[in-house]
């Protein structure tokens, strides 16, 4: 694995956000949800596509606080633009478990 230096890490903007909407993403090649995430007044609302359908139902995601990278360029997935990358951990079955803060935080808090 390639190592990075501190200045590489500082380029990544990782923030807390709260999922406000979660809908099935019918146009995705693999089962996924379209997520709307509130990152607070400084950053605002961003959208993301997440392949988390095996572990989560849309109604379970509403109000869930997550951790995401917010400074990737938008990525087109079918007819949808994903504006951030929600972070998760692959379990033993290769299913994604979302990363979330231990305690409720304000939306938009920087992780570093």
Mean pLDDT: 95
Largest sheet: 6 strands, antiparallel
Number of helices: 3
% residues in beta strands: 35-45%
- Assembly type of the shown chains? single chain
Which segments are poorly predicted (pLDDT under 50) over 5 or more consecutive residues? none
Secondary-structure arrangement, i.e. CATH architecture: Beta Barrel
The rounded distance between the terminal residues' Cα atoms is 21 Å
Rg from Cα: 14 Å
- Number of strand segments: 10
The top-level CATH class is Mainly Beta
Summarize the structure.
It contains 3 helices and 10 strands, in the order αββαβαβββββββ. With 112 residues, the chain is mainly β.
Walk me through the structure.
This protein is 12% helix and 39% strand. The protein is built from three helices and ten strands. Strands 1, 2, 3, 4, 7 and 10 form a six-stranded antiparallel β-sheet that branches. Strands 5-6 form a two-stranded antiparallel ribbon. The longest helix has 5 residues, at 6-10.
Quickly list its features:
112 residues, mainly beta, OB fold (Dihydrolipoamide Acetyltransferase, E2P), six-stranded antiparallel β-sheet, two-stranded antiparallel ribbon, 3 helices
SSE topology:
Blueprint: H1 6-10, E1 14-24, E2 33-38, H2 40-43, E3 45-50, H3 58-61, E4 65-69, E5 75-77, E6 80-82, E7 85-86, E8 88-90, E9 96-98, E10 110-111
Antiparallel strand pairs: 1-2, 1-4, 1-10, 2-3, 4-7, 5-6, 8-9
